[in-house]
Amino acid sequence: MKSELYDKLGAEQGVHRIAHHFYVNFLKDDLLRPFFESIDIDQQERKMHAFLTYAFGGNSLYTGKTLRRAHSGLVINQGLSTVHFNAMMACMAQTLKEQKIAAELIQEVITILEYQRNNILGVD
Ligand code: HEM
Predict the structure, then answer these.
(1) Given 20, 34, 88, 106, which is the most exposed site by the fewest CB atoms within 10 A?
(2) From residue 122, how far is each of 44, 63, 70, 71 by CA, in Å?
(3) If you average pLDDT over residues 32-53, what whole number do you get?
């Protein structure tokens, strides 16, 4: 399954570049960086690449953890909250802008990631 959004973002290479630059920017943010102190960032980048490929319609199969499961411990033990989610979304928008992605595509990406807000911040 291929979608227009995935292709417009540059398909495999483009989404790879986005995932990479996203974490370069993410780690510059004092609010976000502490969450990744003991995380292998290359591995995380690969996981995010897999998720974004799926979310943008480049692949219909995502075999990683559900986002709720991946983040519930962070909410409970490290205080992951709305303020971090919002900072992450701003970081993604900034990354896409730096990659010269058109404003309407940035909006599409943000809308897609917004759907995950409750999964990431809800705990269960
Ligand atoms: C739309 C927003 C987000 C998306 C799409 C996303 C995506 C992901 C994905 C795909 C994983 C890997 C799951 C797996 O292990 O299979 C993950 C893990 C992780 N995420 Fe997020 N995430 C988001 C928001 C955040 C935020 C706001 C933070 C913290 C500021 C965060 C911190 C982490 C950390 C620390 C891990 C590693 C957990 C571990 O390995 O124990 N995420 N995320």
Answers:
(1) 34
(2) 21, 21, 11, 9
(3) 97
Q: What is the CA(124)–ligand 1 centre distance, in A?
A: 16
Ligand 1 contact, 3 CB (< 6 A): no
pLDDT at residue 60, as a whole number = 82
Ligand 1 binding pocket includes 6 (Cβ within 6 Å): no
Q: What is the pLDDT of residues 78-105, one digit of tens each?
A: 999 999 999 999 999 999 999 999 999 9
Give the Å distance between the CA of 36 and the centre of ligand 1: 9
Residue percentage of the chain with pLDDT more than 70: 96
25's tokens: 């920017």
Residue 62: count other Cβ atoms within 10 Å of its Cβ: 15
Name the residue type at position 99: Q
Distance CA 88, CA 75 (A): 15
